Amino acid sequence: MSDRPAASLRLDSPLRLISSLRLDSPARAAGAVLLLAAVAGPLWLTDFWLQAGLFAMAAAVGAIGLTLLVGVAGQLSLGHAFFLGVGAYTYTLLAGEREDGMSGFGLPPVAALLAAAAVAGAAGAAFSPIAGRLRGIYLGLASLGLVFLGRHVWLNAEDVTGGYNGRTVEAFAVPGFSFSDEDPDYLAVLGTPFGELHRLWYLFLAVALLAAYCGRGIKAGRAGRAMAGVRDGETAAASVGIRVARVKATAFTVSSVYAGVAGALTALAFGRVAPDSFALTVSIDYLVMIVLGGAGSIAGASAGAVFVSVLPLMLVQYSAHLPFLSAPGSGGVDAATLSRFVYGVAIVAVLIFLRGGLAGALRHLGIRTARAGRPSRPARPAERSTPKESAP
Q1: Which of 3-12, 341-350, 380-389 has the lowest mean pLDDT?
Q2: 321, 265 in Cβ contact below 8 A?
Q3: Buried b vs exposed e over 210-222: b needs ≥16 C-beta within 10 Å?
């Protein structure tokens, strides 16, 4: 029987929970501010920024999956766009209706979203035997073949994908509530009418937060430690009992599940899917995201996804106010070309000056802030020898 009072037993857990919520670092404080801004964003953002936010949050989900594969497990992949396409077309096929010569199953969108994650994960698991036998640039080249295979399927399976022109995406809905503008129920919050973009914003935000939470759990758990061991050295990992092939298969499967969800979210954000949305450049963009953010960092991958996704949209939106930008196809520097230049400069700068990416910079800033705010310990006074009392 414990001698501690009953009140102490009841208050122990809540007090620990409250103490764990202290914003004692720049990273935690910045995360809290960003979360509050994201929750309140639809109340004051325009449609352009809402649309850009949807693309950024969808990309963040896919970038988290890729950073687990590349940054944590150390497995190079250039086929992320293929798994994005699998998720997007699976959702479109299962949630869509059969019309205009295209197949459709008319399943509930929630079930279609879960199926998109499952089918993409199954595709990653099917590729895992190849991933288990290759590593480095050879694995990257093997995964690159998936992008060309996927593009061939997207273009030729016209009854499923719609071919070159693509097909529209069924709006998301849950029982009793629709995320589409066609919903006759009027919804307003603090005087702001909530249309499809506003409703999808909170759906995407919830999925992105869940993806980040699960990603941190995987990285910090037993599976993450095994992935890190394989990344640091396959021979050493095998010598301590880690099954290297199984760890690689797990990493590819988990990354593919994330990509499947990201693909379905991207399809919902666009409202339409087409083969060009899952080209090789998309895989390169995702690699840029995790390099800029810091390979292996969940928060860094999310930050890199926001940068890479939003920058081209901003340049296109405000190209009229930037005199050095030319119209697309004119032979000058257009918004897309400038964004590629910025990516290149940013990558070189990160590799030279910030080897840990944005996450590493914030980590160093937090360490310096903690050291600066820590009070200096006063000098210990010299100990004086006192004569011992003589025994009586």
Answers
A1: 3-12
A2: no
A3: ebbebbeebbeee
Taking the complete model, does pTM exceed 0.85, yes or no? no
Calculate the alpha carbon distances from 263 to 39, 104, 119, 258, 349 in Å: 23, 18, 12, 9, 30
Question: Could you give the CA distance from residue 62 to residue 305 in angstroms, rounded to a whole number?
Answer: 9
CB distance 23 to 364 below 8 Å: no
Query: 67, 231 in Cβ contact below 8 A?
Result: no
Q: Which long-range contacts (CB under 8 A, 24 or more apart) does 190-193 make?
A: 190/43, 192/42, 192/43, 192/44
Residue 80's closest CA among 208, 260, 250, 347? 260
User: Rounded distance, CA 326 to CA 337, Å?
Assistant: 10
Contact between 302 and 31 under an 8 Å Cβ cutoff? The reply is: no
How many other C-beta atoms can be found within 10 angstroms of the C-beta atom of residue 195? 16
| 3 state SS of 311 | helix
Distance CA 29, CA 23 (A): 5
Q: Which two tokens stand for residue 56?
A: 């950024």
Does residue 270 contact residue 277 with C-beta atoms inside 8 Å?
yes
379, amino acid identity: A
> Could you tell me if 289 and 59 are in contact, meaning their C-beta atoms sit under 8 angstroms apart?
yes
Non-local (6+) Cβ contacts of 185 within 8 A are 178
What residues pair up with 168 in beta bridges, in sequence order?
272
Please write the tens of the pLDDT for every residue from 136-184: 889 899 999 999 999 999 999 998 898 988 999 988 988 877 777 665 5
**C-alpha pair distances (Å), 230 with each of 94, 133, 247:** 37, 13, 8
- Burial (CB < 10 A; 0-12, 13-18, 19+), residue 200, is buried
Burial 148-182 (b: 16+ CB within 10 A, else e): eebbeebeeeeebbbbeebbbbbbbbeeeebbeee
Is beta strand 173-174 parallel, antiparallel or unpaired with respect to 167-168? Answer: unpaired
Q: Are the CB atoms for 260 and 87 separated by under 8 Å?
A: yes
Phi, psi of 173 (to 5 degrees): -160, 155
